[in-house]
Amino acid sequence: MNNLARKMVAIILAVCLAATFALTGCGSNQSADTSGKDQVVKLKHWVWLDDPKDPTMANLVQEFNSTHPNIQVELEVIPWGDFRTRLLTAAASGDAPDTACFKLTWVPEFVGNQALEPLDPYLKNWQGKADIQDNLWDVFTVTDDKQMYVMPWIVQALYVYYRPSLFQEAGVEIPKTWDEFLTVAQKLTKDRNGDGKIDQYGFGMRGARYGHEPWGSFVFASVEGNKIMENGKAVFNTPAARQANDFFLDLYRKYKVVPPTAPADGFAEIVNNFKSGRTAMIVHHIRSYKDMEKQFGDDVSAFPVPAGPNGRWTSLGDTENVVFSSSKQKEAAFTFISWLAEKDQIDKWCRASGDVPVAKSVQALDFYQNNRFMQASFESLPFAHVYPVTTAMGEWIESVWPAVTQQALQGQITGDDMMNQLEAAMNKK
Amino acid sequence: MKSKRLYPYYLVAPAVIFMLVIVAYPILNSFYMSMMDYKLFKMSSTHFVGLQNYIAVLQDPVFRQSLWNTLWWVGLGVFLQFFFGLILALLLNEKFRGRGIVRALILVPWVTPGILIGLMWTWMYDGNYGVINDVLVKLHLLDQYVPWLAQSNTALLAVIVTIVWQGIPFFAIMLLAGLQTIPKELYEAAEVDGASSWQSFWMITLPMLMPTIFVTTLLRIIWVANSVDVIFAMTGGGPGYSTLTLSVYTFVKARTALDFGYASTMSIYLTMILSVVLFAYLYQIKKKEARLR
Fold first, then answer.
1. A66 and A127 part of one domain
2. Domain count across chain B
3. How confident is the model at residue B104 (pLDDT cuts 50, 70, 90)?
């Protein structure tokens, strides 16, 4: 509402201003067309910040501006909840910024609107290219035209957080396979205060939005080649995957090693349950580790997700930077986003935010090598994948997956129905 | 002569233009979008599809479930708001110490933003630590904690309770205003005739209050049917589709599927359903005006 009011005021002011110019005949045509060498190029960069008080990004931009006097970047912070829609509407109406933080899953919808600039011509001459984690260039090529539209920046791989003291107490080891995982979870599910009611559960299942990421580790580890989609068709709905899906559902339906609130549990709930000791394991990425360490000190650690019959699969979280095709200063825009992806800048950002660096030279630094959560992330990166990147996935992730999973958990539909619906929704054109 | 005849139109022109921009344009635009294949991620291939969206929506099982949920959400939700609002209004109409303060305080739920109410109640309902579970277990009404918002058979009822909590003050204040317009003489006359208080409630209070009840209920039906915030904050429409109302589904379709054509079509259907309520409302106002004349 506030925004609307501000917009209205802006419009009214703009109209008044235009009227003034029209009346005084001051509508000048002289200001444009002075693109000489010394001209200072102005760029607009959009970001979202998980912690709006964190000054790291602003400091980086300031540093860039002082080291690149010919390019001045103006930072605009947009709330995460609105980011994608704001960016889409801005791009559709031609008001896109020059550069922005970006998620890989958004690529098709923006490329479909011809809003993104392919980066391959610029990348050819970029010095830092060899320093980026090798498999990322493949993972990030997601469109049919095989062009790179994003500049890698930071990643997060999902792994399992656990409480060593609870493991010791139950006499269990870190599980290597999903079958071992179930045994461990069963031993960790118990009544601690002796009132006859379970008050500690083995695993914090996420049944609400974005639970598809940990779910994928259960199911895709049973799919041959861990393939989700091939040639534009979903291929994950195999008999083995359906069995793995039933295994996942049974953690709630049959074995009851997850809290009864699981179908509605989102990020806040699983983290709170873990932090209060109600669950002994949850799946999340590096972004939670500072918070966890604050709570438990040494009594929290991490291991990569267990393996299924076809190895391991974990979900890769990502943030990249992009250049918009509507930008009039593409060279400068690329200079800025490639500068962000250089060693020092990545290091500064990752130390502050706790993200996993994509630059190999940064990964090798002591700070990252001595951090057990970074280690779990590095171990997970080789089998970390992104979900298919298509226009149907927005709805699939945000509303289809939670709805059908919640129905299946409660027994309103079978596990096979769930898999069929997920397949159909992924194939939707 | 001519300019004199036009003069009144000049005077109302700003209001008319304002209404056209603020009301007519969005409605016409929704109609337009509902006839198009209008997806935000495929702007370049937006094209006319006629009634295709309208047919697709009717065949959508999720739409039918959300329609059914909307009936419960509006029917039960508004009725309970009215019921408790009426009781509260009758209480507040009595004289007691601190009545002014109480009248002001009961407005608190009404002025609290829906998102905040949703978050507040989500934690109260929480299946692991929620205060509602805690109290019910301590009173031995429950054996163990119930995950209210994680079960399809309790989630809809749980969100209805929340909207009822939010809406009671509105009914209470509106009905209280209505109560205060009832002439005291009627009650005195009834007392002289030997009517019990129950009889005077049924024969005087309720009939005299009827126009207020009618208008307030209709307004609230429209608002509750259109409200998204409380449900979206509490369950996002889940678990499954058990708390998905038409307006929440429309919001989700526009926001996550970015399918504006489909979402517009659903909002047109909702508008059509609510129009029935609206016509009843306008009819009532007209009747009231006729009586005043």
1. yes
2. 2
3. confident
Say whether B241 and A403 touch across the interface (CB within 8 A): yes
Q: Do A263 and B241 touch (CB under 8 A)?
A: no
Contacts of A114 in chain B (CB under 8 A): 44
Distance CA A204, CA A266 (A): 10
Residue A9 located in a structural domain: no
Give backbone dihedrals phi and psi of A227, rounded to 5 degrees, phi first: -85, 135
Of A121, A94, A140, the closest CA to residue A334 belongs to A121
| Average pLDDT of the residues in B47-65 | 89
- Interface contact B238-A89, CB threshold 8 A: no
Residue B47 burial by CB count (10 A; 0-12/13-18/19+): exposed, middle or buried? exposed
- Give the mean pLDDT of chain A: 86
Selected residues 192-231 of chain A with any CB under 8 Å from a CB in chain B: 197, 207-209
Tokens standing for residue B16: 């008319």
Q: For A97-124, how does the pLDDT look when each residue is reduced to its tens digit (9 = 90+)?
A: 999 999 888 888 888 888 999 999 999 8
Query: Residue B226: pLDDT above 70?
Result: yes
Q: How far apart are CA B186 and CA A235, in angstroms?
A: 77
What's the rounded Cα separation, in Å, for the pair A381 and A378? 5
Average pLDDT on A263-291 reads: 91
Its ipTM equals 0.79
Residues A46 and A147 in one domain: yes
A186 and A276 in a single domain? The answer is yes
Give the pTM.
0.80
Percent of chain A with pLDDT over 90: 56
Q: What is the pLDDT of residues A288-312, one digit of tens each?
A: 888 899 999 999 999 999 999 999 9
Domain carrying residue A365: 40-157+317-381
CB contact under 8 A, A88 and B258: yes
Domain containing A422 — which CATH number? 3.40.190.10
How distant is the alpha carbon of residue A332 from its chain centre?
Answer: 26
B236 touches chain A (CB under 8 A): yes
Q: Does B201 touch chain A (CB under 8 A)?
A: no
Number of domains in chain A: 2
Domain of B160, in residue numbers: 35-292
Q: Could you tell me if A87 and A115 are in contact, meaning their C-beta atoms sit under 8 angstroms apart?
A: no
Q: What is the mean pLDDT of chain B?
A: 88
